């Protein structure tokens, strides 16, 4: 093994330890973390804003932690939902790590929070390797990205507990082959559910929130072949 591989494995092992501790700490406080991964431009910020607003309408205490290389644009957009939001600027780092999440949550996360959505940096490569203490990892993809995305990024899609297809209103103009996409997803992650969504029309917003709440309340999550935290047991219902 070359030195760079040894260093990478050590970094990931350290991150996994920190993520496990963070997951346990947040679970003890009644907080479930949802890690959102996607390419830039997938529409996850707009969809997340809709989900946050719907959660508040349903009296679910939610918060959002969003990361980007630069600007606080996403935090401003998400704050329109009425939910507490915090922005982290990574200064060029292409992914979030558990230590960053822990450090920025201290002294900020409202005490009654039940769900914390983490909007990861727009990237389907680096973020896929880092557990952030999440109970649920959701990978999103827009119909405009092409149906072969799961085959190109098998680590990301293969580690997803749930896959969300966004911007479905553009499927026709984009010539998107949904059956081919579903087949690609099944090849890297057999049995994972695909939720269709459109932030513009509201399609999939309640379905997505229902799936997240079910896992928070103790329902077993799908077990992906590349599970980011394969040894975690579902928490008991509150």
In short:
Strands 3-2-4-1-5-6-7 form a seven-stranded parallel sheet, with helices on both faces. It has 238 residues and is of the alpha/beta class. The protein contains nine helices and seven strands; from the N terminus they run αβαβαβαββααβααβα.
Structure explained in plain terms:
- This protein has helices spanning 3-28, 44-57, 73-79, 98-105, 149-152, 154-158, 171-174, 178-188, 205-216; strands at 32-37, 62-68, 85-89, 115-119, 136-142, 162-166, 194-196.
- By secondary structure, it is an alpha/beta fold.
- Strand 2 (62-68), helix 3 and strand 3 form a beta-alpha-beta unit.
- The longest helix has 26 residues, at 3-28.
N-to-C SSE string, H for helix and E for strand: HEHEHEHEEHHEHHEH
Tally of DSSP helical segments: 9
- As a percent range, the share of helical residues equals 25-40%
Distance between the termini: 46 Å
Classification by helices and strands? alpha/beta
Give the neighbour order of strands across the main sheet.
3-2-4-1-5-6-7
Our Rg estimate from Cα atoms comes to 17 Å
User: Hey, roughly how much beta strand do the residues contain?
Assistant: 15-25%
Shape call? globular
Largest sheet: 7 strands, parallel
Number of strands: 7
Overall pLDDT? 92
């Amino acid at each position: 093994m070359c030195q760079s591989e040894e260093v990478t494995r050590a970094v990931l092992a350290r991150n996994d330890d920190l993520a496990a501790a963070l997951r346990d700490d947040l679970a003890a406080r009644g907080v479930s973390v949802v890690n959102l991964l996607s390419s830039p431009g997938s529409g996850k910020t707009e969809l997340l804003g809709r989900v946050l607003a719907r959660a508040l309408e349903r009296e679910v205490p939610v918060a959002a932690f969003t990361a980007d290389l630069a600007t606080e644009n996403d935090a401003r957009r998400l704050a329109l939902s009425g939910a507490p939001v915090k922005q982290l600027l990574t200064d060029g780092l292409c992914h979030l790590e558990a230590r960053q999440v822990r450090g920025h949550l201290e002294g900020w996360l409202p005490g009654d929070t039940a769900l914390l959505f983490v909007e990861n940096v727009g990237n389907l490569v680096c973020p896929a390797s880092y557990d952030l203490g999440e109970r649920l990892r959701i990978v999103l993809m827009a119909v405009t990205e092409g149906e072969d995305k799961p085959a190109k990024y098998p680590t990301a899609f293969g580690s997803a507990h749930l896959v969300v297809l966004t911007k479905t209103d553009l499927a026709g103009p984009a010539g998107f082959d949904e059956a081919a996409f579903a087949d690609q997803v099944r090849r890297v992650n057999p049995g994972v559910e695909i939720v269709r969504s459109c932030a513009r029309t509201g399609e999939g917003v309640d379905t997505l929130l229902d799936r997240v709440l079910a896992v928070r309340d103790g329902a077993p999550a799908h077990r992906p072949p590349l599970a980011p935290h394969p040894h975690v047991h579902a928490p008991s219902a509150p």
